[in-house]
Every structure is written in C-alpha cells, then in structure tokens.
C-alpha cells in the first residue's frame, strides 16, 4: 500500500510503498480516508531519519477486524463502520491497524474530514483542561489559541463556564476566537496583569516564563508544547510562594485505557451537533502534504489541516 514517510533530508515527507498492515487481537484495520496534521508531527519530521512514518490522527472505514484464534471479534466495530481515532504513528497511509480502545464511531452529521481533525488536538485540549478540576468561574489562559489545540481548548473551557483569555501571535490570528467563547483575545502575554487559575502553555521560552508569572496562587500551569523551541529561565522565588503547580502533559502516554474511546465519542458528539466547532484551515490531497506542512511551519494556518487520502488511479 501507499504511505507517507520522512525523507530525512529536510524535504519532510514523500510517498512510499510499505507492507500491508493487518489487525491483531482487539484491533481493527481501517481504510483511511482523511488524516490530520499536528505541529508535533512537523517537529518530528524535521528531525526524523528517512523512513520514519508519521500519523496519529485518522478517520476512515473499518475494513477488517482482528481475531484471537477462532474467537469472534466481540465489541469491535463491524466492517463498513465509519470510525476515527489516534494511532501510535503511521496513519498517513492507505490503511492502518489500531486497537479498538483508541477509536470511536463517527456519528451521523460529522464528516470524516472533520472527524480526522479531532483526536490529538481535541483529546489534548480536553485532558489538559481536566487537570485543574472544576472550571466554573475560573480564569483560563490559552496560549497558541489560534492553532488546532487552542481552538478546541477555548471552546471546551467556555463549555465549563470558565473565563477564557486567548493568546495569539498577531491581531489577525485572533479572528473568530471571541465567537468560540474567548472573553478576551490578546496579542502576546507580556502586557497581562490578571492572575489565571489555569494556564495551557505551549509557546515555551518566554511564553512559559510569563505563564509562571501569571498563574494565580494554587493555580496550575500545564506545559505541553514548546512551539518556540526556546528554553525558559524564570524566577523560582517569585513562583514558589504561590504554591502553584507546573505540570506536564503528553497525550500519547495514556491512550490505551478505557477512557480514550469515551473521550473521542464525547468530542465527536459535540462536533456532530456543532457544539464544538471544528475549524479546518486547510484541506488538501495527501500528495500535497509537504506544502501543508510548510504552511503550518510558517504559522499560516489558523486551525486544523486535513489531508484526504485519495485512491490510486487504476491504469
Ligand atoms: N504534549 C502533547 O501531548 C501535545 C499534544 C498536541 C499538541 N502539543 C503541542 O501543542 C502546541 C499546539 O499544537 P497544535 O497542533 O495546535 O499547533 P498549531 O496548530 O500550529 O498551533 C500552535 C499555535 O501556537 C502559536 N505559536 C506561538 N508561538 C509560536 C512559535 N514560536 N512557533 C509556532 N507557533 C507558535 C501559533 O499561533 P500564532 O501564530 O497566533 O502565534 C499557532 O497557532 C504545539 O507546541 C504542539 O507540539 C502537545
């Protein structure tokens, strides 16, 4: 089958032929129709050796169920079912085999294109927001708010009745964030003086330093990205008297538990009824993946980018 693979030389990705995957016990084989692109994949592709295969998010149609010996595939979605989810890698391909615990059915009213945009960014937003407990009335600061995770985080925080401040890099990057639920949209964090109960921090460098300054006493900073690729120096003696928490988060660490399928189904349910807006900034044929990755790298996408996995023309 065809897949996208790292070039290892700065070219980011190229199409290659790879062996067909097969579904093991508890897995399904998915005929992939759409995948989404995450900044984390861009970072990895920039450094990856040739042959490394990217791809966490996918949406498609079940092609086959794995069996355990002669045991029936109880509980697995049947062939033909529309599903979406998150793989350990390698989903930028015609087919991917994934544990059933990492996927959910795509409900009516949600396209495969929009479903593909949900898993990594949606789960990250949902799970980082949960790290502070009850958010009703809480002040939440979302850095990188124009991006894929950021747009979901703004909406999900507002659903929990938080007061959301969204941080963007340029004024035009803030377009649409108020409609998604941000009470305030600011360009950079430098001028802010308010204290925040929860800060979702992905800028790294100076942005993380400012987050540690702005977190409220007993508040929480969740650091889960370093888009700037810069290191952070901060004044510990300004930070520890607040008894605030600095916590890390990595979405791929906790995907095999019982909650992933339920969280995916929750996000898909909201998206199907437009209670969660899936802002897709670019949809392209997967053969144009490199151009999409370059736009993501250059901060020219405000929202998610989706690649459509098209069939090969028969000669
Ligand atoms: N730990 C995890 O499990 C996990 C999971 C998902 C994502 N992440 C991380 O979370 C961050 C957001 O991911 P995403 O997929 O939503 O990315 P994205 O769509 O590219 O959004 C990132 C946003 O960050 C802003 N940004 C601020 N400083 C930047 C810089 N120096 N370089 C590039 N962008 C900068 C950009 O907005 P402006 O142009 O408006 O500034 C951009 O919209 C990334 O750092 C990613 O690696 C981590």
Oligomer: single chain
Helix/strand/pairing category: alpha/beta
Strand/helix succession: EEEHEEEEHHEHEHEEHEHEHEHE
Q: What is the second-level CATH architecture of the largest domain? A: Alpha-Beta Complex
Bound molecules: NADP nicotinamide-adenine-dinucleotide phosphate
The helical percent reads: 10-25%
Pfam families: ADH_N, ADH_zinc_N
Keywords: NADP, Oxidoreductase
GO molecular function: NADPH binding; oxidoreductase activity, acting on NAD(P)H
Protein name: Zinc-binding dehydrogenase
Polypeptide structure, described:
It is a single chain. By secondary structure, this protein is of the alpha/beta class. The chain folds into two domains: 2-117 and 280-308, Quinone Oxidoreductase, Chain A, domain 1 (Alpha-Beta Complex), CATH 3.90.180.10; 122-251, NAD(P)-binding Rossmann-like Domain (Rossmann fold, 3-Layer(aba) Sandwich). It is built from nine helices and 15 strands. Strands 3, 4, 5, 6, 7, 14 and 15 form a seven-stranded mixed beta sheet that branches. Strands 10-9-8-11-12-13 form a six-stranded parallel beta sheet, sandwiched between helices. Helix 3 crosses helix 4 (148-159) and helix 3 packs across helix 8 (259-272). The radius of gyration is 20 Å and the shape is globular. The structure holds NADP nicotinamide-adenine-dinucleotide phosphate. Residues 38-40, 120-121, 124, 144, 146-150, 168-170, 173, 202-203, 224-225, 227-228, 249-251, 296, 299 line the site of NADP nicotinamide-adenine-dinucleotide phosphate (NAP). NADP nicotinamide-adenine-dinucleotide phosphate is lined by residues 38-40, 120-121, 124, 144, 146-150, 168-170, 173, 202-203, 224-225, 227-228, 249-251, 296, 299.
């Amino acid at each position: 089958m065809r897949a996208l693979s790292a070039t290892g030389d700065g070219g980011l990705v190229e199409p290659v032929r790879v062996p067909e995957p097969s579904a093991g016990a508890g897995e399904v084989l998915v005929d992939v129709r759409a995948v989404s692109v995450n900044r984390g994949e861009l970072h990895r592709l920039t450094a990856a050796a040739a042959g490394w295969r990217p791809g966490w998010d996918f949406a498609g149609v079940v092609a086959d169920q794995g069996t355990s010996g002669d045991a029936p595939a109880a509980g697995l979605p049947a062939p033909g079912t529309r599903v979406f989810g998150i793989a350990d890698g390698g989903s930028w391909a015609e087919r991917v085999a994934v544990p059933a615990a990492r996927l959910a059915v795509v409900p009516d009213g949600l396209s495969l294109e929009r479903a593909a945009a949900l898993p990594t960014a949606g789960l990250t937003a949902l799970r980082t927001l949960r790290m502070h407990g009850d958010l009703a009335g809480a002040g939440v600061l979302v850095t990188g708010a124009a991006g894929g995770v950021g747009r979901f985080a703004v909406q999900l925080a507002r659903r929990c009745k938080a007061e959301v401040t969204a941080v963007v890099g340029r004024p035009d990057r803030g377009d649409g964030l108020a409609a998604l639920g941000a009470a305030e949209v600011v360009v950079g964090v430098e001028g802010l003086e308010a204290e925040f109960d929860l800060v979702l921090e992905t800028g790294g460098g100076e942005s993380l330093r400012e987050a540690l300054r702005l977190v409220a006493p007993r508040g929480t900073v969740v650091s889960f990205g370093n888009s700037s690729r810069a290191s952070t120096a901060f004044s510990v003696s300004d930070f520890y008297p607040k008894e605030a928490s600095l916590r890390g988060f990595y979405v791929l660490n906790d995907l095999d538990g019982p909650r992933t399928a339920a969280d995916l189904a929750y996000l898909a349910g909201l998206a199907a009824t437009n209670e969660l807006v899936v802002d897709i900034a670019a949809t392209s044929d997967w053969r144009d993946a490199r151009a999409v990755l370059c736009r993501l790298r250059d901060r020219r996408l405000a929202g998610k980018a989706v690649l459509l996995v098209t069939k090969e023309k028969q000669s």
